[in-house]
Amino acid sequence: MNFTVESDVGLKRTVNEDRVAFVERPDQFKLAILADGMGGHNAGDVASEMAIEQMRTLFLTEEGSRFHSQESCKEWLHHAISQINNEVYRYSLSHEDCQGMGTTLIAVLVHHMDCIIGHIGDSRVYHFTNETVTLITRDHSYVNVLLESGQISEEEAQNHPQKNFILKSLGTERSIQPDFYDVQVEEDSYLLICSDGLSNKLSSNEMAAIITLPMSLKEKGEKLVKLANDSGGEDNISLILMTMKEEV
């Protein structure tokens, strides 16, 4: 699996509350992680940092036997996310300046072409092939509930005043139930994990136009970030772009 990782503070923020990592084990299992923190007094970066670093540690220290099947991989993801949620939640209760903090979380467990995705919040995973663009994850947001129920249109959702109101995030409640998805990344396809600093600024077709350009993965990631900044850059912008394809 080839990958590139990008994280940018954007043009309007002074603190980057996004955290992102790609972690590899000796047994060829890999974990792509992205967290977009939220909370007062800059506590969002505390929540996202805790989520990423604890997920990294749990993954690297886990026995390989825990990943022997797709179902056991999903069980491990669920257990790890639940454990980290509890620790972030308890930390927020015991530190006054961190009360109410939380974070989105995307955790993608990768083995060869198979990807198992654990998802909380409104960070997203897209799958790009030569012919199609698919949004894999479903936003845990108020606007998405309105959209799915037919109360607002796609265009209205883009500019809704409560666009950033999240219904589910890691660390804000005692327990959490992530959504899970299975995706197979074929040789000529791409998996894009991103925070809403990217997805709020670029349409899926604009992303696809960049991802299919004849340039390196690193250049594609940098170009996606630049275009989001060129479109306003009001939020932090983070992404992981992965493919089985041998890039330039």
Characteristic key phrases:
protein serine/threonine phosphatase activity; hydrolase; 248 residues; globular; metal ion binding; 11 strands; single chain; 5-stranded antiparallel sheet; Phosphatase 2c, domain 1; EC 3.1.3.16; 6-stranded antiparallel sheet
Explain briefly what this protein structure is.
The protein has helices spanning 44-61, 70-94, 142-148, 154-158, 196-199, 204-211, 217-230, and strands spanning 2-8, 18-24, 29-38, 102-103, 105-111, 114-120, 124-128, 133-135, 179-184, 190-194, 237-243.
Describe the fold and architecture.
- The structure is a single chain.
- With 248 residues, this protein is of the alpha+beta class.
- The chain has a single domain, classed as PPM-type phosphatase domain (Phosphatase 2c, domain 1).
- It is built from seven helices and eleven strands.
- It has helices at 44-61, 70-94, 142-148, 154-158, 196-199, 204-211, 217-230, and strands spanning 2-8, 18-24, 29-38, 102-103, 105-111, 114-120, 124-128, 133-135, 179-184, 190-194, 237-243.
- The strands form two sheets. Strands 2, 3, 4, 5, 6 and 9 form a six-stranded antiparallel sheet that branches.
- A hairpin with a 4-residue loop joins strand 7 (124-128) and strand 8 (133-135).
- Helix 1 (44-61) runs antiparallel to helix 2 (70-94).
- It is globular, with a radius of gyration of 17 Å.
- The model has no long low-confidence stretch (mean pLDDT 94).
- Residues 2-244 form the PPM-type phosphatase domain.
- It catalyses: O-phospho-L-seryl-[protein] + H2O = L-seryl-[protein] + phosphate; O-phospho-L-threonyl-[protein] + H2O = L-threonyl-[protein] + phosphate.
- InterPro entries: PP2C, PPM-type-like_dom_sf, PPM-type_phosphatase-like_dom.
- Keywords: Hydrolase, Manganese, Metal-binding, Protein phosphatase.
- Its cofactor is Mn(2+).
